[in-house]
Structure formats: C-alpha cells, structure tokens
Amino acid sequence: MTTTIKRRGVLRAGALGLSGLALPYPAWAQTGSPGLRPTSPPLSGEDIRLRIAHGMFDVGGRTGHAIMLNGVLPAPLIRLREGQNVRLHVENALDEDSSIHWHGLILPFHMDGVPGISFPGIKPRSTFTYEFPVKQAGTYWYHSHSGLQEQMGHYGPIVIDPAGAEPAPYDREHVIVLSDWTFRHPHEVIAKLKARGGYFNRNRQTATSGSMSAADRAMWGRMRMDPSDIADVTASTYTYLVNGHGPAENWTGLFTPGERVRLRIINASAMTIFNLRIPDLPMTVVQADGMDVKPVETDELQISVAETYDVIVAPADRAYTLVAESIDRSGLTRATLAPRLGMTAPVPALRERPTLGMKDMGMGGPGSGHAQHGGTAAGGMDGMDHCTAEHAAMGHCAPGASMKMDHSMRDKSLVPPSVKVGVGVDMIAPMPVDRTGDRPLGLEQVPHRVLTYHQLAPLVPFPDKRPPARSIDIHLTGNMEKFMWSFDGKKMNEGAEPIRLALDERVRINLINNSMMNHPIHIHGHFFELVTGQAHGHPIKHTVNVMPGGKASFDLTADAPGDWAFHCHLLYHMHAGMMNVVKIRPLADGGAQ
Amino acid sequence: MSLLAALLLTAVQCTPEHAAMGHCKMTPAAKPKPVARQKPKPVANPRPRPAAAAREKPHPAVTPRQQPSAGPVCTPEHAAMGHCQLPQQPAAPAPSSPAPPLPTPPATDPCTPEHAAMGHCRPAAATPAAPPSSAPPPAARSGPDHAADAIWGADAMAPARRAVHAEHGGFTDNRILLDRLEYRAAKGRDGYAVEGEAWFGGDYDRLWLKFAADGTFGEPLESAELQALYSRAINPWFNLQGGVRHDFGHGPDRTQLALGIQGLAPYWFEIDAAAFLSTKGELTARVEAEYDQRITNQLILQPRVELGLSAQDITELRVGAGLTEVEAGLRLRYEFVPEFAPYLGVEWERSVGRTADHARAAGERTGGWSFVAGVRAWF
C-alpha cells in the first residue's frame, strides 16, 4: 500500500500553492498537486453525489462552454475499494438527458449507464441513483453516454484500491487524465466532418511535401484515399489537456526524489490517440485497462482512446516533461513532474507526421516483423512483395511481379454476404493481418522502446480456460469522405443485427479493420483476453485498438447477462453509427438483478 | 538451440504453409506444433459448461499459461496468389499474426520440448485454432428482446431506445456551397459569373439544388439556371441525381428534366455529368470535371473543364448538334479557412462546331479568354 507518512510533508506544499475550492479543477488535477491522498480522497465512501451542469472552462486564455460534474473539469476522482458497495446519486441539472457510464466496471447491465440500452437515461432536473458492488480494482473512468456530451468535459477518473495487497507498490500516485478540448460545439465538429471528411486535417499531402514517389501518389489518388489521414479531428481545433490543463498551463505533479511514483494514465479523449513519453524517464507498465500486468519497462506508449495504463516511474532530483502527442502529430500537450513547483524540463518539438503505408491499407505484408513498413517510410511499396525468394524458387510466383497483382481495395468477395458493402464502405482490406504485435502507427522507427500489445502479460491469468467454441467476425467499416462508420457495413440506425451470445458462452471475436484508421473497440460490462499468441499469456482488456487495415482477436466469456453497448470509442465514429448491442441470454431470474 | 536452428533452416526451405499445401515436407524436428492443431475441432455440443470461476474475473486464480498456435495454414497472401482457398471466414482467428518465418524471432516458449522431456517443465496448453463460425446457440435467443425492459419497463425504454438508434448514424445536415462568385475581365466587356449548390439530407438521400448564372455588366442576364434534384448515393463516392432544371435569362426559357451523376472519381476528380431533356423534346448534356491540387495546405490550384453537348440543332437557342461548347479554367485559391477562399484565375471558353457557326452567323463572338477574380465559400 501507499505510505502516507512520506506524503504528509508534501501535502502542505500542495495546499500552499493552491487556492482550493475556487479553482475549476479537483485538487488532484490542480497544478502543483502532491498527488492522491488516501487521507482526504476527493469522492469516496458508499454514497457519492455528482451533479451534471453547464459550466465555463478556461484554457489557453479563452473561455468556452462546458458540461462539468460538480463544477470541475475533469470530473471528480471517484476512489473506491474493491469489495465495497457504492451508491452514486447523479443529478442532471442540464436541460437535456444525460447519463454516466462507468467505463470498465463489472456491474449489472442496468447500472451500466447507456441510455436506450441499459436504462432510460437521466432526465433533465432529475436524480438517478446507480448502485452496485465493486468487484474489481484498478484505474478506470466514467463519462457521459448521451449525445456528444463527453466532448464537452463530461468525464472523470475512477481509482479502485485492491482488497488485498497492491501487487505493484508505490510511494505516491498521480492521476493523468488526457483529453481533447475544442471551443467548437461538438455538433459543429461532426457537421464539418460530414461536409468534408478531411476538414480538420491541415497537414495533408501537397505537391511538394513528403518523399512519396509519383507512382505511390497516383496509387493513393486512384483509391481516393489520403495517406496523411491519421486523425479525423486534429489540433487545428483541439487543445490537448492533461488534467484539464493545456500545454501552456503546464500541469505539474510533485514528487520527492527516490520515490516510486505511479501514474494512472487515462485517455478520456473524444477522438485523440496519444503517444506518451517522459524523456529520460523509463516507465514500467504495471496495469492496462485496470488489469494488472507483469511489469514491463518501456520508453513510449501509444494510448488509444478509452484505454488506461498505469506506469511506475522512479524520477531523480530534477524535472521531467510528460509529453502526450496526438497520433497525427498535429499537436501535443505537456505536463511536468518535478520535486518542486516551478521547475520545468525541455519540451521536445513535434516529430514529423506519420504517413499511412501498405499495411495500413490492409495489404497485409509479412508478419509483425515488418512493422517498420509504412510509417514515416511513406509508402513502403516493398511491403507488397509477397513473392519471396523461396516462393519464386518453387515456381509459385515471379519476383517483382507483385505490383501487377490486382489488389482491389473493395473486393466484396472477401467479406461474407452479411457485410453490407454499400455506400458506407469505401474499402475492404485485401489482406488484413493480425497487428497486435506491431508497433503503433507512427512509432515504427522511433529509436527507443515502444510498448506493443504483445508485451503485455496478465499478472493473474484469465480464469476461464475453455477454448472458444465459436468465432464471430466483425468487420470495421467506413466511408472516409462521407464520414460514415459502422460494423459490417450497417450503421446502428440502419438496424444492425445485435450480437447474440448465450450466457457463459466462450467466443472468439475477430475484429477486421477495413479502414485506414485506428479504431479503439470497447465492449461494456466485460473484460476480454486479447489474443496475442504470446507464451506469457494474453492481456485482459476492455478496449482494444485495431490498427488500420489490420486485425485483432479477443476471447470473451459472456458471463454477464443483459444488453451491452459495443462500439468504437472514437466519439464521432460512434455517433456516425459505429455501435451495436451485445445481447447475452438468458437473463437471470427477474431480469438481471 | 537446436530447435531454433531447425526452425531457421525450415524457414528457408519449407514453410509450414507450404508444407500444409503439400509443396514440401518439413523435417520432423522442426514441425511446428500449430500445424498439427489446425484440424478444426468438431464441436459436438457448443453449449459450454457454465464457468462459475469466470465471473470472478478481476482476481482470478493462477493456472497454467497458454501457448499460442502459429496461425492458419492458408494465409491471405497465399490465397491471393491462388495457392489455396481461405476458410469460409476469411478472418479465421489468427492467434498470432500469420507470420511467415522471416526475421521475426519465433514466439518463445520457455518450456522447450527438450526441457519438457527432461521433466524440467510442462509444455503450455495450446490455444486451439480457429473455432468454427456458427450461429448463436438457442439459449442466446431466449428471454426478452430488450433486457432493460424487464427492469425499467417497456414504456420508459421505448423512446430512449428509438433515440439511441437514431442518434448513432441517423445524421441529417445541410451544406451551402458558393463554388464561384467571380468578376470576369475580358476583352471588350467585363462580366460576372456565379455558381453554387446546396444540399439538405442524410447519408443517402438528399435534396440537391444547383444554381448558375453569368452575364456582362450593363446588359441583361445572359444565362441562368436552377436545378432542383433528388440525390441518392449509389456508391461510396457517387450520387445519382434526378429532377428538374429551369433556364431563364437571355433568350427563351426552358424547363427540362435532369438526370446525372455527381461525385468523386478515382484520382480525386470531382465529376458532375448530366443529361437534360427539355419540354420541347431537345436532348442536351453537360460534363464538368475539376481537380484540387494542393500546393500547400492552404494554396490550391484548381483546373476545371466543362463540355456542352447537344443531340440536335436547336435554332431557337443557336445550338448545333454535337459538341457545343468547351470551357476550361485554372483558379488559384487561398483557403484562409476551409470555408472561405478568394481566388485568381483564367477562364477560356469557346463555342464549337455548328454552335460556333450559329454564333458567327448572328455576329456574336465564339469565345475567348478572361481573367477571373472571386471567392469560394461554403457553410
């Protein structure tokens, strides 16, 4: 467990530099925070009260309209203990429906907080009480599942302390909530995306930029695809936040040299996948999505939307910059870890923007060993050469002929008839391969260690050892120009057939990404085993980032009866239709109590 | 060590995929376990035993670890080359990436067969390959359609359910584009031109309005047209559009039926092609193509071509059968914001064929150059 004695000393320092109640941040999110203190946790106990209301949010010298909980952004930290019961009384002071979904928590489906699927929603000027037993430990978060409210600030962290010993002990902890803020109304954001899919991309390929050959440019043009289309919404409108602070505000978390500091990193963004690093300070990942993993040391990790990573760092007596760079490198945010308030470390410049490659088009290519294709290599046509010397020798193919192979980018015969390849599907990946072992997009060639899913091993293996009895393929589909997103070519409003599972059934879900975008896919109410094929075990997660043109599989034990949301956690992708319902039957007696 | 060496050797000579296709035989030492496991496991009773332990996910008990299999025999790459057929589900689970034995080090199992033989460890249990893709068991269809109805009541849930479905994908919007609003400086008389469009609707069905007019300063409107079309998306990039067009301005008015396609062609060409049938039975057509070449992210050069065609002579309008006119423009715009871009450019237009003859007979010009300056805006 944490040592409260060490913390006492810095507690005063924290209180000194801060004015407390008047600030629109919870104490842990204030700059100069000494970290979380079990002695005065922000919100804990059996009864917790939250109030959703409009508020004004300041960043970078501007003020914008936000939806805040208890008047702060991010929303208050909820700190619970495994084994307790909790009642959360949520008052909706908005003029529209609202909701809170407890992201990653195992609870009865009707407490999951998705309007229209798990409950009717929280009506304006009413209070809804969530009540459930806390069955797990780890770092989680909560957010609105109504409309686009999450974009406006309706998100906050949850930390659950284990009932037993902490497997990854630490001396101090900081919560790092990453998010993206825009002064535009979210309805305006999606309207722009619908009008022009690449609206927010101000770093497109031009006649003179980049090193791409004319042939490659022609190929991308023929497909009507843009190799610079990495993120739909970019720093052209977003300010990236750490604990509600923009880069200029430089949120600072304090530590005492020699301490083991645990950073509970939550990507609460609407649309932004971040590359996260702390130059000169290796991070030991001890938890992913709230589940303990065998410690693995790394220098940089990519955290997709809705994922969480807990890392432990051992900083020396100096300041460090925590850098969170958006995946398209249109912008970054920074925070500082320092022994004393006011200290800073250099902020690295934005690195060159990545470019999609053949593997991102679903052109397969050799296994994960060739992950360096694409990325900044801009094109990587050699990734297409499936005619290896061995094959050629056996007369199976002619080397060099690969460019002549007909790689239709929309071959309907590659998907089952249940996939509707219509207006909403502009691409079928010709040869999608499992990419869970690949370095994340844009980090293929950085000269330091980068976390991959294959490196994650559960500290405690998943209890259900049964092999999956059947598999379900789910195609991730979209139309970039029209900004339509769906599963199996059917948007949620088009009556997509729910995913039906029998209670306690064990299934393998194969996610096949037929688009050139990353999609963080999240299932409610369950953890799954991400099938990495690694001998050290499969990580247990609630959200998996499926790389462009790639595949990811997970094994799921359908042990929670009820209806559960299943969706891409990029907010506007979900809003555009990339969502479905997982129905697990039979329900227990009297519903799912 | 010997296993690794054997694996590497095999990598060069006989890949598991090839072996499986009968193209070569693998040395027994290197025979990777996974291939043997590829045999689809018949599932006699798909209904699994209830796993009570599974509910205690967060802190499960320690049990033997699993070992992966190496992936399907028929990789997509092979299938694409026609060497084999993919299983019915093209995405049969590939526990590890279907990794051809290339530089990638094989996934290391600390418990090698040699060790196991010496009794030092127990080989990990295998992750079975490719479970079949099958329909959900009957139990999955039992119980109420909507679980939440049982808790909150169908009346409370129905409107929320309608809303959640409509909200996720059911988007309608509108856009108004003023494509060209420009001053045309030409020899003789300066003029103006305006062209724009607006749409209202969702992803598939839209009401699409198009408007164009041009003229010479000091003279009456030369030509103007308004189209009201129903637009239906027919593939990811193109819309089929049908409706009416009304021409007014100089000369006799015409009302016409319009049928065309508009969209984005390969290589990012914006295409708008339509045929028109007037109430007098005259058939004409128009094809427009334009392309945005980004010089920088804000400076954009747009070449544009427009062709007019007619199926017959229309003396009243001084139009001849065949190709009637050609317009070509080159505009350089600067997008201060994507919604607003002033531009400079040149425009060349010319009547051709018998249409040009008509013009000459009437003593009119058959075309020429003009310099243009204008704005492009949308909202």
Describe, in short, the structure shown.
With 593 residues, chain A is mainly β. Helices cover 7% and strands 32% of the residues of chain A.
Describe this protein's structure:
The complex is a heterodimer of chains A (593) and B (379). Chain A is built from five helices and 32 strands. With 593 residues, chain A is mostly beta strands. Helix content of chain A is 7%, strand content 32%. In chain A, the strands form six sheets. In chain A, strands 21, 22, 23, 25, 27, 28 and 30 form a seven-stranded mixed β-sheet that branches. A six-stranded mixed β-sheet of chain A has the order 11-10-13-18-15-16, with no helix packed on it. Chain A folds into two domains: 4-184 and 238-338, Cupredoxins -  blue copper proteins (Immunoglobulin-like), CATH 2.60.40.420; 354-593, Sandwich (Immunoglobulin-like). Chain B folds into two domains: 2-40 and 66-126, no CATH class; 173-378, Porin. In chain B, 16% of the residues lie in helices and 39% in strands. In chain B, the strands form two sheets. Chain B has a twelve-stranded antiparallel β-barrel. In chain B, strands 1-2 form a two-stranded parallel sheet. The chains are: A mainly beta (593), B alpha+beta (379). At the A-B interface, α2, α3, β21, β22 and β24 of A face β1, α4, α6, α7 and β11 of B. Chain A: Residues 62-162, 173-325, 466-586 form the Plastocyanin-like domain. Chain A: Residues 1-29 form the signal peptide. Chain A: Keywords: Copper, Metal-binding, Oxidoreductase, Signal.
